[in-house]
């Protein structure tokens, strides 16, 4: 779902309530007095529809904004313009090598065109410096072991390749959701006893029961974890555990406990917050705040594995290189 | 004098529509629609072969009786699929090479109607604005639009589905499929001209009647129909689990590209 229409951008910019542009502490209380949260026939806040989490705001605070939590309106515009220019992969003003790194050109990228409506300088809001806390020694060892395995066996078989290249899991699919190159969209469905989040990235679906059922047996580990939801006032709270040890969210392990909060703060804004708690991987819990914006376009099937001729090409390339090296000896 | 009119109206509205289960009226959702929410599963041998078939050895001798084909009475109305002659040849060739060609073996999206009767459950998530079909196999999903969004921008594995209510029956019109999916493990196939009209009719608190009319002028001589009951998974802890099967298919798809000297 690429975002081509400039007119649409203007409509979106206008329809985001002014209050949502203020720091989030004020966002909930000062949202336009006329707006009330729409509700499902069951009386719960209606979170349904297609929400995008594409944004130019970086996960961690860049050095240039050290000590600065929010951008002014002018700074935000300047930052957006600079990022759009610098990140543009249709540019051909670099070396041949630069051209190769831009082979995935703008046709592929759907990174958004704006910073988050709060104009925060990073998606990480805690720790206050906007940085993911350091890994524990145990998590550092695991990361080092993975790096060593990649160095020794870069492509002996498909399982040596990154999860995204295998079409198993992407950094944005979740849980949790975070923007990456493309497919930064999720559709929410609600029934009386379930909330279901379908992610455009590899059509991952999270079926979240709200009926208070007990957690899954701890021996069953899942790529997307096992989620339970409940309402706290008008906020949907989703707690997820039972991740497998391969999903590895920013260095996490199977002890990851994720708490996500979804609050519809405006017609076009779904405030998404999540806390990452994994004492065996991070030296302290950390929190992300990412306002999602209502996407008026549809979501489409992303049949990644079915079209994965890239994997065959990567493996064949390594085999060719090995054969050439052997022939030279 | 008004009473007889009321009675007449009641009688008419209570008369069953053809294709509906006459005796059963489904419970309603909060917005008054028949409630199809739940986890459902076919309980038959259609995924091995939608036509009537005797038991047979599996495609891989090494899997022994575990991989054998269980016998089934078939789900095709009139038993035989009305293939055009050349298409029937292709079906036979598919069957011979099914171990290598069956998209299910490769963990590819199952298409429609096969997704419905794979030996794994699926969940209907019925909100007031759209209906989601989430299938356990390969984490396949389909959104059923209740407002027609217009034609699909491209063909896809799971197609483009628009739904409407016909009494208590959810009718789904599905098209814009690619030509990559099969109907079963026996090599029954279709082209990109496939058009499927599905009917999901509540028949009791715990089962639905599933009917699908299949049309594909490039492959068949006429439209044909399958039908079967779908059963609710009534276990207290029933849930759709995770079957992300790419990992399980990598050796089959990429095994010949593996580093041979690897001692991993």
Question: What attributes characterize this protein structure?
Answer:
heterodimer, A: 329 residues, alpha+beta, ten-stranded antiparallel β-sheet, 22% helix, globular, B: alpha+beta, Lipocalin, 14% helix, 24% strand, disordered N terminus
Secondary-structure map with pairings?
The complex is a heterodimer of chains A (329) and B (264).
Chain A: H1 6-15, H2 24-30, E1 49-52, H3 73-86, H4 96-101, E2 124-126, H5 137-152, E3 185-190, E4 194-199, E5 205-209, E6 226-232, E7 235-241, E8 257-266, E9 269-277, E10 286-294, H6 309-328
Antiparallel strand pairs in A: 1-3, 1-10, 2-10, 3-4, 4-5, 6-7, 7-8, 8-9, 9-10
Chain B: H1 3-14, E1 38-42, H2 85-96, H3 98-101, E2 122-126, E3 130-135, E4 141-145, E5 160-166, E6 169-175, E7 195-204, E8 207-215, E9 224-232, H4 246-254
Parallel strand pairs in B: 4-5
Antiparallel strand pairs in B: 1-2, 1-9, 2-3, 3-4, 5-6, 6-7, 7-8, 8-9
Short note summarizing the structure:
With 329 residues, chain A is an alpha+beta fold. Chain A is built from 6 helices and 10 strands, in the order ααβααβαββββββββα. Helices cover 22% and strands 20% of the residues of chain A.
β-strand percent of chain A reads 15-25%
Our Rg estimate of chain B from Cα atoms comes to 21 Å
Rough outline of chain B: globular
Number of strands of chain A: 10
Number of strands of chain B: 9
Low-confidence stretches of chain A: 2-30
Give the strand content of chain B: 15-25%
- Strand line-up of the largest beta sheet of chain B: 1-2-3-4-5-6-7-8-9
Spatial gap, N to C terminus of chain B: 88 Å
User: What are the segments of chain B in which pLDDT stays under 50 over at least 5 consecutive residues?
Assistant: 1-18
Fold-level CATH name of chain B: Lipocalin
Q: What best-fitting shape of chain A do the alpha-carbon axes yield?
A: globular
The number of helical segments of chain B is 4
Number of domains of chain A: 1
> Most extensive chain contact?
A-B, 47 and 43 residues
Question: How many helical stretches of chain A?
Answer: 6
Structural class of chain B: alpha+beta
Number of domains of chain B: 1
Radius of gyration of chain A: 21 Å
